[in-house]
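As noted in the main text, all predictions were made from sequence alone. Below is one such record, for Glycosyltransferase.
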Amino acid sequence: MSIIHPVPSGSKITWGRVGIVVTILAWIGYVVSTIIRQFIDYGGSFRFTMEALSYLVVVTFLTFSALMYLVARQGALIRFRDHTRAPRGMLDRHFGDTRSQRLTVLVPSYAEEPDVVRLTLWSAALQEYPYLDLVLLIDDPPNPTDPDVLAKLEATRRLAPDIEEALREPRDRFQGSLEAAAAYLATHDVDRKAVKTLLREYRAAVAWLKAMAEQEDVVDHVSEFFVDQVLVGLANELNLTAIALQAALDQGGLPEADRVEELHRRLAWIFRADLTSFERKRYASLSNEANKAMNVNSYLGLMGHVWRPHDTAAGLMLDEVESAEPGDLVIPDSGYVLTLDADSQLLRDYCVRLVFYLEQSENRHVAIIQTPYSSFRGAPTRIERIAGASTDLQHILHQGKTFHNATFWVGANAVIRKEALEDIVEVQNVGGYDIKTYIQDRTVIEDTESSIDIGTAGWSLVNYPERLSYSATPPDFGSLVVQRRRWANGGLLILPKLWGQVRHRRHSRERVHLTELALRVNYMGSIAWASFGLLFLLFYPYDSRLLSPLVLAAALPYFVAMGSDLRDCGHRFSDIFRIYGFNLVLLPVNLAGVLKSIQQAFTGEKIPFARTPKVRNRTAAPAWHVLVPYLIVGFSILTAYRDFNQHNWGNFSFAVFNAVLAGTAIRAYIGLRASFVDMGLGVLNWLYVERRPKKVAAPEPTDAAIDWAGILYFGDRRLARDLRRPDDRRRRVTRARR
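Prediction:
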């Protein structure tokens, strides 16, 4: 898709406003003409009254979500219309005249495929930025015993040094040409020789990128995107500059000396990046929480300091020191931090354009800027394509949320002002070491909760209105279940924080617009009420008197707008029906996530973070999540049969509609064979009970076997003895520190 969104026409914006008005009027008309009229004309029994009230609640919440879609979309259209892209020359001048702060790219990785992480690192390493540090945060267990797992970990560890070595030749060349050009222009005016030298360097950069593109193995649509959009896209942009320089020579015109030096500097910055990797699980003094947020937090807490590793009976500890010595860990500080998922890719202008926005005087209050990711084109599976279509719709909606000051951080990528993170950090001393939490891990949707924290601290968030980042969507139903169940878990828990932020802002005499509040509430709660609402509509036989064409009229603008947006994103208008079926098969997944939120609210126990599997093979789905879509189809057919005999044509049509779309979705997105395999595995796993090994009391150690180092460190003989068992060491040490 195009980086720049097409400018919407005036009629498209007008029809968007009409859709909003129609939705509101249709809902009001339904309440007056159907609900109120039924009670005035006929009264109602207790059962009918309860049905009417519950049906009205369901319709109201679903209509509210549809309305919020239209409102956010309308804001996005206005932003796309008004967006003016900063010229290339302005960017070069800005980063050449001002000493921009260092940017650190953090790529958290856990059990990822090395070739997928490699593409992500390359897309970040080729970003044009003056001072770029790229850190791969490897969260795998550092000492696996499985040879295959160890080989995969070693391949991941080699990624950073291999990429830095590959960049060495072009980096040295273009840095040398920059220094030579600066020295030449300091004593000479711009002449044809200087321009020819610059032209030669640009052609060399284009040749290097195209040579790399030819050597890449294109094994799937993600690697094809990397070659076409990252490597060749950057080469084409540099080649365009070369064409302009050649035209200047042919036409007898020469650029100014400052511009020549800026263009040399641009090449040097593209191929200059410092790459390293970091493994927090090597150090017992860092958090061991198994989630992405604490992986990132651990490194953020070390930035700007010098750390000396210190071996103890509990493991390797990091102690802060004033000056560095050989073997110490030096973590430079940065003004900006870019968090990037290990399966995402950035296009060439991501860093310079987003940081340029942050460094404008009117944007000093902005803490986080991002381009909500789009989906990779050409996915091989139906479920990946339809999940990608829903992702592309979310990209548009997030742009509209910024229009109404209701931006949420979408964790796949974002440039964060480090100063803002320091405003929301929480410090907890565990076992004598400070554990810093910048990004909250209380829920499994850490980016959403951190968005509220950032807003409460007085900062704002912005979505940049261009497509500059892409990310993978799960390729099968099993991995999609893990992702969507995590997305559905946590929104309800964060709502009280939103109310606290609203009270804080009102106390500070800051106006909170109703539209902003409505969009935020819908973002965090819509999965809950949409899932329960759809559940009621599917399985409860509501009285036919409650049905009305006005309900369809209220939903029609939403579906028409969605179809139009899908078509603008390169999908089909008819994908609105596929997305509806997609949501039907995901109903048990979303309900499971919502129920987990309710469980955490009552128990106070944190729900474990479940990472989305990113493997080449298919991920098996839980049997219950596969069975429920079949139950939806069966019950819809039964409902249709009953309503046909009762001549209840409204409910009959709805039941047939659900049965057809749910059945089609099962076949397309889960697969008949795969669904039966997963249900069979679920039954076997339920029946199978693993035999527990017999517990053998550990003998008391003799004097010769006394773990003197452990006793001296812990002051506890039993704990020191348990440390001999490597499998239990980290768990017991963590418990002791707590």
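The radius of gyration is 29 Å. Residues 404 and 515 are 7 Å apart (CA to CA). These features were considered when defining construct boundaries for the mutagenesis experiments described in Section 2.9.
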